[in-house]
Design goal:
Layout (H helix, E strand, L loop, with lengths): L3 E9 L13 H9 L3 H20 L4 H4 L2 E2 L5 E3 L2 E8 L2 E7 L3 E7 L7 H7 L2 H4 L5 H15 L18 E6 L2 E7 L6 E7 L1
Length: 193
Amino acid sequence: MKKWRIAVYLRKWDEGILTKQVYVPEERKRQLLSMRNPYRKKEMEAVWILLSDAFELEGRPLEDVHPRLLPSGQWVGEGVCFSLTHEGGYVGVAIASFPVGIDLVLSGDQRLSPRLRENISTAEERDSNWTTASLFAAKEALFKRDGGMGFVPSSIQVFQEKERLFTKEIGDLTLALASREPFEGIEVDLRIA
């Protein structure tokens, strides 16, 4: 029997989603105001709307969670941990009662070159059958789970964390989740809108 649960919500977004008004804490408003790239700003707005919708579906309005930003860039709330991701027109949220990280990578992204794989991987990872998209997404999810201060993919050891990682190909996306708990005891409740 599974004793833990990670709720995962994924959505392809468009401009229409941005018309919805949701609770946004002051730290997030400051982040949005500092964004110079208009597309990335819209993605960050879209992921926050998904987060609000996800908490509603989980039975707890986002404002009741009292989200706050840690110095590491990690978001936490009262009695809950969550992680956000946005990539190539998709947004994703992971919610759990323990530290969790989520990342999405477009599997066909041209940046996922052999040179990138060489730069981000340990020798064991380079020689594995993991795709570059899976490796990169897993490293980013582990980084988000731990709330690190500077993302250096080559310093993150995916294979030492294998039992705390979940990866899944969903169409043209690679989803990675990282947990502090081993996944053998976790239910991943994946909802795609």
